[in-house]
Write a structure and sequence with these properties.
This protein is α/β, with parallel strands linked by helices. Helix content is 44%, strand content 23%. The strands form 4 sheets. Strands 11-12-14-15-16-17-18-19 form an 8-stranded mixed barrel, surrounded by 5 helices. Strand 14, helix 8 (276-288) and strand 15 form a beta-alpha-beta unit. It is elongated, with a radius of gyration of 29 Å. 32% of the residues are buried. The structure holds ligand C2E and calcium ion (2 copies). The site of ligand C2E has 23 residues, from strand 12, helix 6, helix 7 and strand 16.
Length: 430
Amino acid sequence: MQPTQTKNDLKFDFHHIRTSYKKGATIFHEEDERDNAYIIETGAVEISTTRHGKKVPLVHLGQGEVFGETALLGAGKRTATAVALEDTEVFTISPGLLHDRIMHLDPLVGLLLSLLVNRYRQWRFRSPEEAEKEANADLPHEEAKMDHVNKADVFMRDLQVQRAAALDELRMAQEITRAIDLNQFGPWLQPIVSLPEKKIVGFEALVRWDHPSRGRVSPAEFIPVAERTHVVWDIDMTMLKAACQIVPELQKAAGGVDRKLYISVNLSGVHFENEGIVDEVSAIVKSSGIDPQHLVFEITESALVGDPAVAEKILHKLRKIGGRIALDDFGTGYSSLSYLHRFNFDLLKIDRAFVHDIATNRKSLEIVRAIVMLAKNFHLQITGEGIESDHEADLLSGIGCDYGQGYCFAKPMPLNDAVKFVKDSVEKNG
Ligand code: C2E
Ligand code: CA
Ligand code: CA
């Protein structure tokens, strides 16, 4: 049973994870090699041991209880026997499954959990004689002994990896907090154009970190950490303030064109747990004095899954501020069509994962066509993301996609370049 890992996800072959035992069957026997731990799904299990040739029952376990867990801590022999007291079904948890789960936890949780497991293991497998020797041991001897114990210990290896990851994350979170105070975060702007005319309709504000020693750091590197540590709130509000300041500059650059250029800002899903977000967003927009029609709030489906009822309230209030709401990265996460129905979006952004192969993969094109048709039924306007060629732009336009964004039109750029881009674009395309 080998787990297969994908980029963001951990998939496991669950075919053989559930096993049935008839009443009286032995699940494992004292002196067996340890292999798995078990969770009882239905039924009951007796754990017993042998003392002086006699069976000594230790405990009776029922649904949801775990037994054989020492197998997760390392190799060795069973010290007890597990027998089904009635027809019983168990889930089998292999050390590999646990190991992969721990490695995919938040690094800090992973570090602490592997540390606890390791401590428990060292304590659990120490004989009284060893414990006594240890108590009298000097440090080098102790370390040598631990080294021996740790060699076979998969958790010790995890511990090292998790330790490095946890430290990196804590350092990064602290650096982000400092960088916010030092104003090192600011927006770069990527144009969004109408299809097929290619007239500019707005920009997406994408955060950039001007790091004093590392140069410009990509959001892909720090946003996930900022989200886990909740400092992303300050980043997003900084970006919103900047976006509000930029709107008049872009509008001015567009000159006499009677078109409301908008700025799209990303709001992380982690804000959608409490309604307080709306007051702050509202205060920022009001104090800037801009017409909120120039704003689009981009959110991903992840914002909606935690507590959909709270998310619905927040979206409703955000809309009342006057900006529009875009569902970002559609096609990657849950892509639940029910969200389109339940939540009131104005725009749908189709993720570049779909867009990038529409020119070469007929199925992708058909999927995007279906998404566009469906979105039209919900009166949503659609933006294709990550358009890298004219051909892709033409295909999207041909199936009714309203807007496009991608390197084909322009990469994200600093404000000065964006102002120039607007002027040039208006001169050329109106
Ligand atoms: P996103 O919201 O999907 O933003 C689009 C990303 O695709 C941007 O990457 C953009 O530079 C990139 N992109 C645009 N056109 C193309 C193209 O034609 N080809 C390719 N290969 N890529 C293209 P970026 O700026 O690195 O941002 C990455 C992600 O970081 C964003 O994905 C968004 O999820 C997050 N992010 C960026 N800024 C913010 C922010 O202010 N707040 C929050 N919460 N998240 C942000
Ligand atoms: Ca976005
Ligand atoms: Ca996106």
